[in-house]
């Protein structure tokens, strides 16, 4: 079956029933828009206008009817099972080999996301770091990165294939997988550089506009940022295949000296460091001294981007150099070590 997210669901409903559905959906969408800072102008629309603006309803044969995007996002479980039987989800919580929770079925995306975020709040533990005036609370898994990973799984899953979006909480971290391999043009080596596009653009657009997904479409950046800023092990997509995308979000183990450097610099600039800058800094944290080519290989960045980031980091005083010409090497500035009294791991 060809699932197009602007394709209407062919159902016959009396107008009064559709009005009730629109009202219920409108209330839920408004709550999410307020909670996650979605597009504020959407709050000014009435229920039907809101659904229309998000392309969750369209006109078919003179009537406004829901689209498949509306069904997957907000629909009732029995209707989803009837019309999109491949839209299965599963959530597991493991404690070692003991299964604390194992649920699987056909549910609306917003319901799954709400349940998963509730589990994360109970599952997450925090490490508190003090650095001068800053007190930093670091979670096992960054909630924003977690949400973006789930949104990515649904926006990029292939609804023509059997399988389920699986969210598994395990001792080492969280594993999220979805049916369908990487979209054409996306590989492990260009995840952070490829142009953003997805299999289900209407669904992705609705999620962005209500605030649940990154507005720029670069959700993958937000996933990596949630780990890069703490100098922790990065998300791992290496178990993905041509029929499945699987990301492992490892428990964050923060590097105190690195966190201190990032927090102080971001406070000085009044904004976050870019993902590319954090990738370069993390590469230098791991190999301590390297050439542009070596840094590019570790950071999965083209040399030209690495050079630009290194020049900016040099000007900020976060990076220093040794040697010249083809022998020129880069390393984290010595003040990073002096500021905390300990070496970056």
Automatic annotation (TrEMBL):
Alphabetically ordered keywords of this record: ATP-binding, Nucleotide-binding
Molecular-function annotations in GO: ATP binding
PANTHER family: GLPR-RELATED TRANSCRIPTIONAL REPRESSOR, SCHLAFEN ALBA-2 DOMAIN-CONTAINING PROTEIN
Descriptive protein name: ATP-binding protein
Organism: Veillonella absiana
């Amino acid at each position: 079956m060809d699932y197009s997210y602007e394709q209407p669901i062919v159902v016959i409903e009396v107008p009064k029933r559709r009005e009730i559905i629109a009202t219920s959906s409108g209330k839920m969408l408004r709550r999410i828009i307020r909670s996650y800072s979605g597009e504020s102008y959407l709050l000014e629309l009435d229920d039907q206008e809101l659904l229309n603006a998000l392309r969750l309803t369209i006109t078919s044969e003179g009537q406004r009817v829901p689209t498949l995007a509306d069904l997957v996002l907000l629909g009732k479980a029995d209707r989803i099972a009837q019309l999109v039987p491949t839209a299965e989800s599963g959530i597991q919580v493991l404690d070692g080999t003991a299964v604390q929770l194992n649920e699987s079925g056909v549910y609306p995306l917003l319901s799954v996301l709400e349940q998963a975020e509730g589990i994360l709040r109970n599952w997450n533990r925090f490490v508190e770091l003090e650095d001068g005036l800053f007190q930093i609370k670091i979670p096992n898994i960054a909630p924003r990165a977690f949400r973006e990973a789930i949104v990515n799984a649904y926006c990029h899953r292939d609804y023509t294939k059997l399988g389920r979006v699986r969210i598994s909480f395990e001792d080492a971290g969280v594993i999220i997988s979805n049916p369908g391999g990487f979209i054409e043009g996306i590989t492990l080596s260009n995840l952070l550089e490829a142009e953003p596009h997805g299999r289900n653009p209407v669904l992705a657009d609705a999620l962005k506009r209500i605030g649940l997904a990154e507005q720029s479409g670069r959700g993958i950046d937000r996933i990596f940022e949630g780990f890069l800023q703490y100098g922790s092990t990065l998300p791992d997509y290496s178990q993905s295949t041509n029929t499945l995308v699987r990301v492992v979000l490892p428990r964050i183990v923060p590097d105190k000296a690195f966190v201190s450097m990032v927090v102080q610099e971001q406070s000085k600039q009044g904004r976050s460091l870019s993902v590319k800058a954090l990738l370069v800094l993390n590469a230098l944290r791991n190999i301590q001294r390297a050439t542009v080519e070596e840094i590019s290989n570790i950071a999965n960045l083209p040399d030209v981007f690495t050079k630009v980031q290194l020049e900016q980091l040099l000007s900020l005083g976060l990076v220093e150099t040794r040697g010249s010409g083809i022998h020129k090497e880069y390393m984290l500035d010595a003040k990073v070590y002096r500021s905390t009294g300990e070496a970056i791991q």
